[in-house]
Design brief:
The chain is α/β, with parallel strands linked by helices. The protein is built from five helices and nine strands; from the N terminus they run αβαβαββαβαββββ. Helix 2 packs across helix 3 and helix 4 packs parallel to helix 5.
């Protein structure tokens, strides 16, 4: 049976990340993805988690403290489009859960232009073989604009550099969320690649 989006992301992160990796949560929200990333990279890894809402960062900090995973996480009160101001380490993975904070003000939502800027910055930092998971929510007007804009940007990426997968249930009602997974292709070694892309 196909996994829901959150389960698919969890499965992939647990399979590809290792202790000591550096990763990014571009939308900390209530901290679920941040905690998963922190558990995957361990106490010697590093997680950068961004959010523009102080409430989101407080919720995330509380979740991390309860799980004993706070020490490897830097919580950054800034828009994810500014991530290159704070992060210069190659990333093994990045997670973006676009839209609004669950349980928060629905008027405070991510925007197409800053979301694309954040994805561009994360892609530039991604190490070969690294993955970006971007969950999009086309079920409300702003989310539809954002999803279309992000997907158009991703579709224009050169396939020799980045492979893009769309993970979506196509028989669900009301424009359900869907996932884009970007993998930076390993550097070519002659006619062979060091590993395969998605």
């Amino acid at each position: 049976m196909p996994l829901p989006i959150a389960g698919f992301i969890r499965q992939q992160l647990q399979a590809c990340l290792k202790a000591g990796d550096c990763v990014l949560d571009g939308t900390a929200g209530n901290g679920h993805d941040t905690l998963l990333l922190a558990q995957c990279v361990g106490e010697h890894g590093k997680v950068f988690a961004f959010d523009v809402q102080q409430t989101a960062l407080a919720n995330t900090a509380e979740r991390l403290q309860a799980a004993g995973c706070a020490q490897q996480v830097s919580l950054i009160h800034a828009g994810h489009e500014r991530l290159s101001d704070y992060v210069d380490t190659p990333l093994a993975a990045a997670v973006f859960n676009f839209g609004y904070l669950p349980g928060g003000d629905k008027q405070l939502s991510t925007h197409a232009d800053t979301s694309v800027a954040a994805l561009q910055a994360a892609t530039a930092l991604l190490q070969p073989g690294g993955l970006i998971f971007a969950t999009l929510y086309p079920g409300h007007p702003a989310g539809l604009i954002e999803a279309n804009t992000v997907e158009a940007w991703a579709a224009g990426l050169p396939q020799q550099a980045v492979q893009v997968l769309r993970y979506q249930f196509i028989n669900q009602r009301n424009q359900p969320p869907y996932l884009l997974v970007l993998e930076k292709c390993p550097i070519k070694m002659g006619k062979e690649r060091s590993a395969s892309c998605i």
